[in-house]
């Protein structure tokens, strides 16, 4: 299943080679693949697997990778290194990177809406809705705006804002947590989960998102850029508000441990079937990159 091939699909005219190359570079050049993993493993809780699940997982990864390509641009976070390699705009150029991100985003919804993802049109529509809302104005895009706003990028003074922990949690739930939550929700949709099961997975997803961001902020404070494969220390340099900076490292680590316990508890009703998802929560909290 090569979704990023060069051959045009029905309804397409031509796939420009440089755009395809940049899309493949952005989406296939390493990474943890956590979000598609969560789609696959959440679906597997209910016995769902196969092409449709992997297509949905790929769509999720396309959206995540588009966001990284655009976040790395000079107008956003202005990063030169991603996953230990030059960012897409450094490897190609800014215009190509913007178009590659645009193409990954729109293609994600093409993949979800296409019949091979699910024979049931209602399932496909729900997948599209969940991912669109997680990625869009009230989710990841809105969170990225709030993040830039907190840095003082849009204020007349240009000074960073002093955010409360409630404001930081909201920002991070949108920018980072929304796609992680959507990943487990999409797996539940594909698996035909009932309302109670979906609620339990949603609790797990929200908890995992918060844990992921605290771990990420700790890495930004402490890790070596050569290990994590991207620049570190940028949050402090920009005066960005994080829970680690607001609470201190010790309190942040304590909250991280609590979140792992909460994630475990959310999966209790699934028994041993959820062991891999439990392990994922521990991985998120203890990762070194």
SSE inventory with pairings:
Elements: H1 17-28, H2 34-44, H3 51-71, E1 81-82, E2 85-86, H4 88-91, H5 94-113, H6 121-135, H7 140-150, H8 165-191, H9 195-222, H10 225-228, H11 234-238, H12 243-247, H13 249-266, H14 275-286
Antiparallel strand pairs: 1-2
Helix pairs in contact: 1-5, 2-3, 2-8, 3-5, 3-8, 6-8, 7-8, 8-9, 9-13, 9-14, 13-14
Can you walk through the features of this model?
The protein is mainly alpha-helical. It has a single domain, classed as Orthogonal Bundle (Farnesyl Diphosphate Synthase). The protein is built from 14 helices and 2 strands, in the order αααββααααααααααα. The chain has a two-stranded antiparallel sheet. The chain is globular. The model has no long low-confidence stretch (mean pLDDT 93).
What is the compact description of this entry?
The protein is mostly helical.
CATH class: Mainly Alpha
Going across the major beta sheet, what is the strand order?
1-2
Rounded to the nearest angstrom, the radius of gyration is 19 Å
Largest sheet: 2 strands, antiparallel
Helix and strand sequence? HHHEEHHHHHHHHHHH
In terms of structural class, how would the helical and strand content be classed?
A: mainly alpha
The averaged pLDDT comes out at: 93
Total count of helical runs of at least 4 residues:
14
């Amino acid at each position: 299943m090569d979704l990023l091939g060069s051959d045009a699909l029905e309804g397409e005219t031509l796939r420009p080679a440089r755009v395809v190359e940049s899309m493949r570079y952005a989406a296939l050049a390493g990474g943890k693949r956590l979000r598609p993993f969560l789609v696959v493993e959440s679906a597997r809780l209910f016995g769902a697997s196969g092409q449709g699940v992997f297509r949905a997982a790929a769509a999720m990864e396309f959206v995540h990778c588009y966001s990284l390509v655009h976040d790395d641009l000079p107008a956003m976070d202005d990063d030169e290194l991603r996953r230990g390699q030059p960012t897409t705009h450094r490897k190609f150029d800014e215009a190509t990177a913007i178009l590659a991100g645009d193409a990954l985003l729109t293609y994600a919804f093409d993949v979800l809406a296409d019949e091979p993802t699910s024979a049931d049109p209602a399932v496909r529509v729900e997948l599209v809705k969940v991912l669109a809302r997680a990625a869009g104005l009230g989710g990841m895009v809105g969170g990225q705006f709030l993040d830039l706003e907190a840095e003082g990028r849009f204020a007349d003074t240009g000074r960073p804002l002093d955010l409360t922990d409630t404001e930081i949690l909201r920002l991070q739930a949108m920018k980072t947590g929304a796609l992680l939550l959507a990943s487990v929700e999409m797996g539940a949709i594909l698996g035909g989960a009932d309302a109670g099961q979906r609620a339990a997975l949603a609790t797990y997803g929200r908890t995992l998102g918060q844990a992921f961001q605290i771990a990420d902020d700790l890495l930004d404070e402490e890790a070596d850029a050569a290990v994590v494969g991207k620049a570190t220390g940028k949050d402090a340099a920009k005066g960005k508000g994080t829970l680690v900076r607001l609470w201190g490292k010790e309190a942040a680590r304590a909250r991280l441990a609590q979140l792992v316990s909460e994630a475990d508890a959310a999966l209790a009703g699934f028994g041993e079937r959820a062991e891999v998802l439990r392990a994922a929560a521990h991985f998120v909290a203890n990762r070194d990159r």
